[in-house]
Amino acid sequence: MYSRITGTGSYLPEKILTNLDLERIVDTSDEWIRTRTGITQRHIAAEDQVASDLALYACQNAMLAAGVTGKDIDLIIVATTTPDMIFPSTACILQNKLGIENCPAFDVQAVCSGFVYALATADMFVSSGKYRNALVVGTEIYSKILDWSDRNTCVLFGDGAGAVVLSRSDRPGILSTHLHASGSYSNILSAPGCISGGKVQGTPYISMEGNAVFKFAVKVLEEVVHEAVAENNLQSTDIDWLIPHQANIRIIQSTAKKLGLPMKKVVVAVDKHGNTSAASIPLALDIAVRDGRIQPDQLILMEGVGGGFTWGAVLLRW
Ligand code: UT7
Fold this sequence. Notes:
Layout: E1 2-11, E2 15-18, H1 19-23, H2 30-37, E3 41-44, H3 51-66, E4 75-79, H4 90-97, E5 105-108, H5 114-127, E6 133-141, H6 151-154, E7 159-169, E8 174-181, E9 189-190, E10 194-196, E11 199-201, E12 207-208, H7 210-231, E13 241-244, H8 249-259, H9 270-273, H10 280-290, E14 299-306, E15 310-317
Parallel strand pairs: 4-5, 4-6, 13-14
Antiparallel strand pairs: 1-7, 2-3, 6-7, 8-15, 9-12, 10-11, 14-15
Helix pairs in contact: 3-4, 7-8
The chain binds oxa(dethia)-CoA.
């Protein structure tokens, strides 16, 4: 028994913030952002939107594509670093918004690797036969945890959501999943605030040593993509599509180069979305599925890296 993705969906908030808009907010330039990151614009959620609102639209699209309704869904996993509230989990809030009753629903917190972690978790439940159809979602509103006066971070991130339906299948599907974490690097990327006595203690905004994160990301992504390919006795050149976490075009190019893959085999969305953390992989996937790039039987490698540090990959046959 295997699990396979039977439908994808995504949602981006209406408001677009361009690099030129950012030039009016902080001491930056369109040229710096484009050349250092590949980003030209990002979407920003409305003041009253929360992560479950974005997830709702993405899930509705994914369920429509998979030809399933709420009655068919028996597991919901949401990857998010920007939950609606401390509790209940965003997955439970989403379940209610979807009108789904009585299926397990929980959040996964692995920052930008969140979707890879959530998909690997759902695969365990679905391929073991425990559940039939899982909704796996990455949804983020990073605009609410950015210090808009910090040019080191505020130009990098955006809001959005992506979702897949992962269904039981007698043919693969997901071939293998590879998860890693190293808490000893937690200090180079964090939002170190906490709640105490009902008040935020410390800073709730993202703080990042960009260069250290960049170097770490390039190193571990190379390791994990080779691990995924080797475990399946495949060559990296067998990969039809690389769907990477969309943080920086230079990190994406570096991974593609180390795999020996031309950029025409890489799905890139960072230019239009910025870094949407746990949402970035399912957002990119949905675009490439809907524009017809991804075709049946193709080999797809997803990879992500993020705060924690966490990193991982999922290799699958479409
Ligand atoms: O999703 C996983 C988590 N995040 C990432 O993967 C991000 C990883 N890191 C990166 O993408 C890159 O390190 C950055 C895009 C954040 C920065 O690029 P960089 O080439 O590593 O630049 P840098 O940090 O070495 O900074 C170069 C210069 C500095 O000025 P000085 O000290 O050389 O005078 C910064 O102050 O660029 C300056 N700078 C900016 N200038 C204009 C930093 N941010 C900006 C900005 N606009 N927004």
